User: Fold this.
Amino acid sequence: MRAPTGADLPLLALAVVGIGAAAPLIATIAAPALALALWGNVFGTAALLPFAWAGARHDLAIVWTDRRLRRVVVTSGLALAVHFATWVPAVTLTTVAAATALGAVQPVWNALIARAAGQQVARRVWVGIVVAVLGALLLTGLDLGGDPRALLGNVLALVGGMAAAVYVALGARARAQVSTVAYSVSTFGVCAVTLLVLCLVAGVPVIGFSGQTWGLLLLLT
Assistant:
């Protein structure tokens, strides 16, 4: 572990912009939520695969030959699939603001997972989490009204945040052994396969979208 440097700031800014733009983009894409989640992960896997193959083939081999690590990666990919299968539909059921705010509660679950695993969470970390979550709630103006459709969306967003926390916690374990790109391409692949199965079982169409929809899907990725 090390403190962030000046070179990290542009990457952090890009991450904030990408995550912040996700919910508004999802709300505008004319595709079923599960199909949207599927193609996001398919495109993500395809984008990362050349980098993994060029610089992390050894780590990829470790991921899929080490039984314990493979179990962690597969479980992480399943957790990521649960995240996308719940949070993406939430954006279409409740407001973008509510889905974003409830998804932003993820660090709370990560801190609780760390405590449950016997790790110490410093007081200033808890303070930081509380400030960040309250900030997200204030910025988005979270509305927990009585509309059943919105209520379902809020519950799905909360579940999505929990699943994302599991994904992050397992990722911390896996990335202690292998590179981020090897871990990410593996979990995205597992997630994509899981979402494809869900789409087929649920009868969700995954092709036949307009050119604009495909373009927005690539932008989301």
User: Anything to note?
Assistant: The chain has a mean pLDDT of 89. Residues 33 and 89 are 5 Å apart (CA to CA).
